[in-house]
Design goal:
Shape: globular
Strand order of the largest sheet: 1-2-3-4-5-6
Protein name: DUF6969 domain-containing protein
Distance between the termini: 40 Å
InterPro entries: DUF6969
Pfam families: DUF6969
């Protein structure tokens, strides 16, 4: 990631994020890992991948455009995502942005009172960014990252409230691709401890940035784009989950 951003080095996982996981949570993560591998299996059999599924009807892949057009939205869960590309990470083809919209956010959870100077969504249009997923050209994830508010035009919720939304994210329909929808739903489950760590770091970085630049609106500061990031591996995550479950069973 570019060093001019708030996150100039990758975040390292703290073991406490693993220790805090109950066995039931670990088993859900284990099942999500199996779901992801199944999605890869059915797609590779036809020489496809989760990104290609979204681009197969596009003649040209344009930077900044959302794929698919109009985003992917589940009217029952109110989860949403899109894929796009722009300047950023070496070896990145593009990235997914994932969201929860107001109707899918528990009613007691509200955006922070201070939303900066920009006009933010209101009413049913309120939304929260969860996490972004960077993809290599072959169509596999390699980095998770969080962003400043201006990047996605979201409402700003504190990290602990965004974490409480994670269990509600699911795209449970077949458009534009059943395996891609199942994959991205499972990714949010599989990498929960990393997402929690990244969101906590996001809040720390934003608070520190605001303290260092009191004359700026931190949420609109274009110098602060990426607030935290972490390399990830589906295979390594599955192995760690299996290790955690085995060690707890033996204890």
């Amino acid at each position: 990631m570019n060093g001019e951003f708030g996150a100039d080095k990758p975040l390292a996982m703290d073991d406490r994020h693993w220790r805090d996981l109950a066995p039931d949570r670990l088993r859900k993560m284990q099942a999500a890992g199996a779901e992801i591998l199944k999605c890869y299996h059915v797609l590779t059999k036809v020489n496809a991948n989760v990104v290609g599924e979204l681009l197969k009807t596009a003649d040209t892949f344009f930077e900044w455009d959302h794929y698919p057009k109009g985003d992917v939205y589940d009217r029952d869960t109110h989860a949403q995502y899109y894929y796009h590309a722009h300047r950023g990470v070496d070896n990145e083809h593009g990235h997914f942005h994932t969201f929860m919209r107001r109707k899918g956010i528990p009613a007691e959870i509200q955006p922070l009172a201070d939303q900066g100077s920009a006009k933010v969504p209101e009413g049913d249009d309120i939304l929260s960014h969860l996490i972004a997923i960077s993809m290599v050209p072959a169509g596999y994830p390699f980095i998770l990252f969080s962003t400043n508010r201006w990047v996605t035009g979201e409402n700003w919720f504190k990290a602990s409230d965004v974490v409480s939304m994670l269990d509600h994210f699911e795209i449970d329909h077949a458009w534009p691709s059943w395996p891609t929808n199942r994959w991205i739903s499972a990714m949010i489950i599989l990498f929960r401890p990393q997402i929690v760590a990244l969101l906590e770091e996001r809040d720390r970085v934003v608070a520190e940035w605001a303290e260092k630049h009191p004359d700026r609106d931190v949420y609109e500061d274009r110098s602060l784009e990426i607030t935290s990031y972490m390399p990830v591996s589906v295979e390594e995550q599955i192995a760690r989950i299996n290790q955690e479950l085995s060690s707890r069973a033996a204890a």
